[in-house]
Amino acid sequence: xxTRIRPALAATAAALALGLGGAAAAxxxxxxxxxxxxxxxxxxxxxxxxxxxxxxGSVAAGTTSWPLDFTNTGRRPCTLDGYPGVVxxxxxxxxxxxxxxHWPVAHAATVTIAAGGTAHxxxxxxxxMNFPAGCQLTTASLIKVTPPGQRSAADAFFSLPVCxxxxxxxxxxxxxxxxxxxxxxx
Length: 186
Prior knowledge:
The protein is α+β, with helices and mostly antiparallel strands. The chain has one helix at residues 2-32; strands at residues 48-52, 58-60, 63-72, 78-80, 85-89, 95-96, 101-102, 111-113, 118-126, 137-146, 154-163, 173-175, 179-180.
């Protein structure tokens, strides 16, 4: 009986040794494996140049649209996803009227902008001169644009008539989600 147990114990010990050795080899191989590519971070306001592409504007039925371009001035690619915040402002940066509402002309998706590359959203303006007197028409000197996921805004010089009133009836600015590439109005 002892002669049968010894070979079984030896076989079990050999299997355990091989199993543990294989696990150790797998662990050291996993530790030595190169890491995947670094995750691409969100675009910060500081790494973007934001501007209204007036040459690509489009007018239809009292609504004008322009591409709102985001150029990555950083050294690495970065991402944007969703709607930027947009408000019309005075030359001193004071907000005029309501912040731009969302205009769902495209579905939100993560857009990667290469260093030096450009993405865009569309800025829509309803002709404020068509609103009733309660609009309190005034002229904005610039727009303040907050990239999606950021808290600070970039200024873009842009003069246009807007409603000073913040009542929903006088909503005159709208913005779409960020899309790849330099923009063309729709």
